[in-house]
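User: Predict structure, ligand copper (II) ion.
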Amino acid sequence: MLNWWLPENVSTYGADIDGLFHLVYWITMAAWVLVQVTMIAFLVMYRNRPGRRATYTHGNNGLEIMWTIIPALIVVWLGFRSVETWNKIKIDLPESEHVIEVTAKQFNWEMLYPGPDGEFDTDDDKMIENDLRVPVNKPIILNLKSKDVIHSFFVPQLRMKQDVMPGRTIRSWFEATKAGTYEIPCAELCGFGHSGMLGYLTVLEQADYDAWLAEQWPAAQAQAPENDEVDPEGGRIG
Ligand SMILES: [Cu+2]
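Assistant: Predicted complex:
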């Protein structure tokens, strides 16, 4: 019912995040309705009438304790309620053959692909600025790094947001469920050019992804004749 409020979800774990958002919205809405109804009722009940004198009151300790403790318990409950989702997204990373190193710097995202050998620090590594390409329906692991200050890798449609710290490598993951191009804004105020720090995630169907790989690493394709599933018309992408 509240789905119109959030951007399209194209992530395998997006529904878990949206569920938590919606839960908070419903609780907030219930509190808002309760406060508004009470306020309007009191406005009518205690309006000025002839012969009625104002009275002074210090408040009601019992009520104040109640409306402090109940919201506090709700917040604690929400914390426990989100543990499972947090573990799924941040702790229990899936196995993946697609690992990409993403290095943030003022003010770009450097996407480092390991190349056909799947290993970093080898000759076929390739860095492409602001252009992250992945196959659809495959878990993707990102090793997030920063060269300078704190940035934040954010893809709203993936419900993925992860701060990027200088001096640390933070492993993160997602699995996109729909081909398309999505923005990767930096979500941490990181300096003068922060608002222009924007990359793009392009999620490709497997055949299109293979064609893109063949275009980026043509030598590897020539050396690997067993890889004959590559679309011969590849190259139209990008
Ligand atoms: Cu930034």
